[in-house]
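Example 344, ligand iron/sulfur cluster.
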Amino acid sequence: MLNDNHQRIAVIGAGPAGISAAVAAAALGIEVDWYDKENGAGGKLNNYHQLFPGRESAASILEDFIGTTGTNPVKKHFGIEIARIEKDNQQFSLFSGTEQVGVADSVIIANGFDFFDARIKEEFGYGIYKRVVTSPDLERILKNNSLDLRIDGADPSSIAFVHCVGSRDQQVGINYCSRLCCITGIKQAIEIKELFPQCKVVNFYIDIRAFGTGYEELYREAQEKHKVRFIRGRVSEASENQQNKILLKAEDTLMSRPLKLTVDWLVLLVGMVPACSQIQVDNHQVTDLDTGFFQMAKTFSGSRLAGQAGVFTAGACCGPMSIPEASASGRSAAMEAWQYLKNR
Ligand SMILES: Cc1cc2nc3c(=O)[nH]c(=O)nc-3n(C[C@H](O)[C@H](O)[C@H](O)COP(=O)(O)OP(=O)(O)OC[C@H]3O[C@@H](n4cnc5c(N)ncnc54)[C@H](O)[C@@H]3O)c2cc1C
Ligand code: SF4
């Protein structure tokens, strides 16, 4: 029996990936210490409104996720930010700042991602113009009070979305595609049209990457049912007029012609970047030099962290992924940790 000698695993992060990893590890009979820097579970899900592609309420999916943790004995250490993991013999020590906060026989890192800081793309005026927001900002507005989008009591008449903000952009040193912002922009465009049917909605894209099950259908629905306009083009600049409307300069790259547009709101579809709250592992180089995300030992199988036996990764700390993908990777990391503990 694996746990006759009480082997312990530390799971760092309580987003969708960390929840699935903690629950699966406990179900496999491993004793779990579960850490998150916040005081509760859920990660980014806490601030989303509806989820693509099925438009389920994020709050109810979060409840389902958290519900699964109730029946399993996991020891929660919430409100603790792990900064460093050190290996000594076969044991790992976990540190918050300089203080050692725990020990473990194996570790699953599931510390997720952060949103690209849109202020870096100064040309869009985020943080300067009131009505330039990011996709996570819009999620929060839709969740808390969509009427905040009204202007002087009237429905907004036009909203533009800009794709690939902080992704596929050599200027900011991020070459990868964040995979989920196209479908987020499609879903949010539909939500806007449902709330404000008269509002004109335009999405400026480089090319649409709608790869997942049900994504293409949602893209079609946005165009055919809701009449969202998709313009293949680049927005070069945003400015504000005296009525706080946003003036856009763009280029329609299909028609090869410049374009000017005035909208009530501009939404920047920001990319996914490595978590700001970084975790150092034994002073090893464990992140990909190009992207900064954790690097796995094998490209096609397994979730073992490159260069460190006994440490596994789950979810968006390895790169942009959806909630179902993050959850599946959490379960798979738990299984691999179980095999590691059994064989060592
Ligand atoms: C705008 C936007 C909308 C999205 N909408 C959807 C959607 O509708 N459907 C969908 O499938 N996917 C969606 N996604 C993707 C989704 O956000 C991710 O798949 C999911 O959040 C990944 O889960 P995770 O557990 O890996 O990371 P996270 O959700 O980021 O959770 C990480 C957890 O780790 C904790 N943590 C971080 N660092 C530390 C540390 N050092 N110590 C302790 N704890 C730490 C954090 O507090 C957090 O609780 C969206 C993404 C974006 C950008
Ligand atoms: S998913 Fe779409 S918006 Fe996001 S980086 Fe890729 S192409 Fe750009």
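Summary: The first strand starts at residue 8 and ends at 12.
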